[in-house]
Design a protein that fits this description.
mainly alpha; Cytochrome Bc1 Complex, Chain D, domain 2; Cyt_c_ID; metal-binding
């Protein structure tokens, strides 16, 4: 009985990890398809900031996904330096939301406060 429960638990955990990996790949594929990677990279600055840096800036903000989706479509200037981001109206609102959610998923998890040793 314990072995069966453990098997089920491991399968559920494995499926969750597979879904996370698939979502990450889907985000990268969508970013490639919408030419985001012409100016951004996942982990380094090119013309625009790295997606991981954007994710860190907005980590924990409830309005971040909607804000980023709108910024993708409308563009912006002065938020990340002197080079403005041109509007991307060819990116559908649905794709902009998917891209924003993927970018936000790249934030480093916050570390818990270290516990005092007894």
């Amino acid at each position: 009985m314990v072995a069966r429960c453990l098997s089920v638990l491991l399968c559920v955990l494995g499926a969750g990890l597979a879904l996370t990996a698939a979502a990450q790949q889907t985000g990268v594929d969508l970013a490639k398809a919408r030419n985001c990677l012409s100016c951004h990279q996942v982990d380094k600055k090119v013309v625009g900031p790295a997606f991981t840096v954007i994710a860190q800036r907005f980590a924990g903000s409830e309005a971040a996904a909607d804000y980023l989706a709108q910024a993708i479509r409308d563009g912006g200037r002065g938020r990340w330096g002197p080079v403005p981001m041109p509007a991307q109206p060819q990116v559908s609102p649905a794709d902009a939301k998917l891209l924003a959610a993927w970018i936000l998923s790249l934030a480093e998890p916050t570390t818990a406060e270290p516990q005092a040793k007894e």
